[in-house]
Amino acid sequence: MIMWLLRKYRLHLLVTLALVGLLASFMIASPQTFLSMRIYRSFMSTIPVTAILALGMTLLVVVGEMDLSFPSIAAAASYFFAEIFVRTGSLLLAFLGAMVSGVFMGWINAIVVVRIGVPSIIATIGTQFFWRGLILLLSDGVAISLAEIRGSLLHLLFVGRIGGEIPAQTVWCLALAVLLAFILNRHIFGDALLFIGDNRRTALMMGVPVAKVRTKAFVLMGVLSAFAGLLSTFELANWWPTQGEGYMLLVFASVFVGGTSAYGGEGTIYGSLIGAAIIGIIEAGIVSAGLAGFWTRLVYGLIIVVSVSIYTLMARRGGTS
User: Does residue 77 or residue 9 have the better pLDDT?
Assistant: First the structure.
């Protein structure tokens, strides 16, 4: 029984041990930083944004697709939020407008990829430039201050401090992870994602609504991108034109470090969540250990290559589950 559990959850165990080992190393290298609660409060306010994006990307990678437009979708949805709030003074209307825009932008990606047939990596590079260009034109490249939202009900709900310590976005991230893990592992939609990612042609022959499932995956990624962008906007009470830039590498690193197969058909929400935590603490660990921040990208790249290579070798031996 124990051996069966170890085999079944070996990816979960591996990525958890990696996180524990990394934390232990940083605690030894920089105890004054990593034995203090202050750094963990900081992590709990920053990592959830990366993690939420990685959760949505996990489902897309599982189904055999990618979305490179999510940084621009997050920025565009946040821009619409800021504009609607400035013009109407209604936070609720601005929030709903931003989320609807996320649905729309995800749906546009789905139309181009699923209906027209453009490969997702190419289609979403195009939409990434389009949405970024649109908001730069509309905003004239000028940031929008949203200081008035501090202290509002939505601000407390999304980024308030629970008990004065725990950022609310951490709770949102964990709740979404539980929901998406249930969908991926216990819901017919998750079964369809895995089936399509494993063998799209067979899934189609077996009556799985392939186009509909792929469309929903892109729309879900749009919604989660918009929500992640809003969390950043609420946290800083500000919208800025370059919002979302810099998340691309972090999100894909989180997904692949977490054990999701780059070939589709296999993935784990838990792994992506822990992967986001690993990626999130690396930069702080490197800097606090006395190394230059320039090491960060080198370490990210090394971790991605090594982790994907290990998972590929494990899959080749038929050991993953």
Answer: 77
